[in-house]
Write a structure and sequence with these properties.
Layout (H helix, E strand, L loop, with lengths): L4 E3 L2 E3 L11 E7 L8 E7 L6 E10 L2 H8 L15 E9 L11 E4 L39 E2 L5 E2 L11 E5 L3 E3 L6 H4 L5 H12 L7 E5 L3 H12 L4 E5 L4 H8 L4 E3 L8 H8 L6 E4 L4 H9 L7 E4 L21 E4 L7 H13 L9 E6 L3 H9 L5 E5 L1
Parallel strand pairs: 12-13, 12-15, 13-14, 15-16, 16-17, 18-19
Antiparallel strand pairs: 1-2, 3-4, 4-8, 5-6, 5-10, 5-19, 6-7, 7-11, 8-9
InterPro entries: ADH-like_C, ADH-like_N, ADH_Zn_CS, GroES-like_sf, NAD(P)-bd_dom_sf
Pfam families: ADH_N, ADH_zinc_N
Keywords: Metal-binding, NAD, Oxidoreductase, Zinc
């Protein structure tokens, strides 16, 4: 294993050990099959090719998307062996040919939804989708040559995941999926910007454009849902209703600005009727953060007639269609899906990181557990049991 020095917010190569251009042997948490325990393996990580970056991961955290991929919930995610993980922060170890915006030693966060800057979508202000490096759950190899940069010691390929694969001491990404951030930013906290916090806060800011004094309902108080609450709070929402079957989430939600709580498992009227009653006709904005079609329908119907707006954030693994009748859209309610909170990663995330550093969004509230990388199976169990929002692993 490469013997590199690292600290909580910095890293340096020993002067007598240069790794640029060489294969690195390091530790990674490899999944060999759906639901099988993560195994700490010695893996080979190739040097970056053209427009690729190899980074040293210092911190990584666990998202529900990692959980569903580990469990192999849908066909797109059943590619093994694989190195999962997509929330992280680290240091650039080396860059491939043509990379101009980063260099060795830069502090960075990986992003699953890249930004090449050249495609029609990237050049448009109307979307944060990237035609070349957008999120693609089917993708398991690099664009350059259709091969993996990971392998076992005997040369067997190990597949990539969501453009990132951060459950490894070193990983290789397309440069479009790496964001350079302020070197003064605390890397442990910046890890959360790779997915969960950016996705939730951005949904409130960029997609819904929550206005001051407006009302909000959030269905599912995991990290993404609470990040949406935090974003709505920062925008001055007057009422934020949290909906979750886990009463422990209610306590955490108060710190994120949630003002009212509803447990859908309690007997009574349908959710949307209860929400309409306490908000004089419905909320201005609702956020579906679970990935459940029945919940999505309740979220949609909980918004106010004439202008209510629903943002879909939950991942829906089944092929079932939207539970809406077309005529219901004639009541003036709108619905839209959101990827990465509408943020263009490379061009907009550095500014969001600055806002977080200045306290606009309090990232500390999202980190409920910290463990060493070797305890990754314990970290997943915390998430399964609903005990953690984000468990940060230090490598």
């Amino acid at each position: 294993m490469a013997n590199h020095q690292n600290s909580a917010n910095g890293w340096s190569k020993p002067s007598d050990q240069r790794t640029t251009g060489k294969v690195i042997t390091c530790k990674a948490a490899v999944v060999w099959g759906p639901g099988q325990p993560f195994v700490m393996e010695q893996v080979q990580v190739d040097p970056p090719q053209k427009l690729e970056v190899r980074i040293k991961i210092l911190f990584t955290s666990i998202c529900h998307t990692d959980l569903s991929a580990w469990q192999g919930e849908n066909e797109a995610q059943r590619a093994f062996p694989r190195i999962l993980g997509h929330e992280a922060s680290g240091i650039v170890e080396s860059v491939g040919e043509g990379v101009k915006d980063m260099k060795e030693g830069d502090h960075v966060v990986p992003i699953f939804n890249g930004e090449c800057g050249d495609c029609k979508c990237c050049k448009s202000e109307k979307t944060n989708i990237c035609h070349n490096f957008g999120v693609n759950p089917f993708k398991k190899v690099m664009n350059n040559d259709g091969k993996s940069r990971f392998s076992t010691k005997d040369g067997k390929p190990i597949y990539h995941f969501l453009n990132t694969s951060t459950f490894s001491e070193y990983t290789v990404l397309e440069s479009a999926c790496v964001v350079k951030i302020d070197p003064e930013a605390p890397l442990k906290k910046m890890t959360l910007l790779s997915c969960g916090v950016s996705t939730g806060v951005g949904a409130a800011w960029n997609i819904a454009n929550v206005q001051a004094t407006s009302t909000v309902a959030i269905f599912g108080l995991g990290a993404v849902g609470l990040a949406a609450a935090e974003g709505a709070r920062a925008r001055g929402a007057s009422r934020i209703i949290g909906v979750d079957i886990n009463p422990n989430k209610f306590i955490k939600g108060q710190a994120m600005g949630v003002t009212d709580f509803i447990n859908p498992s309690e007997p009574g009227k349908p959710l949307h009727e209860r929400i309409r009653e306490i908000t004089d006709g419905g909320v201005d904005y609702s956020f579906e953060c679970i990935g459940n079609l029945d919940v999505l329908r309740e979220a949609f119907l909980s918004t106010h007639e004439g202008w209510g707006f629903t943002v879909v954030l939950g991942i829906h693994p089944t092929p079932k269609m939207l539970p809406l009748h077309p005529m219901e859209l004639f009541h003036g309610r709108g619905i839209i899906g959101s990827v990465f909170g509408g943020f263009k990663g490379k061009s907009q995330l550095p500014h969001f990181a600055q806002e977080c550093m200045h306290g606009v969004v309090d990232l500390d509230k999202f980190i409920t557990h910290e463990l060493p990388f070797e305890k990754i199976n314990d970290a997943f169990q915390l998430l399964i049991e609903g005990k953690s929002l984000r468990c940060v692993l230090q490598l």
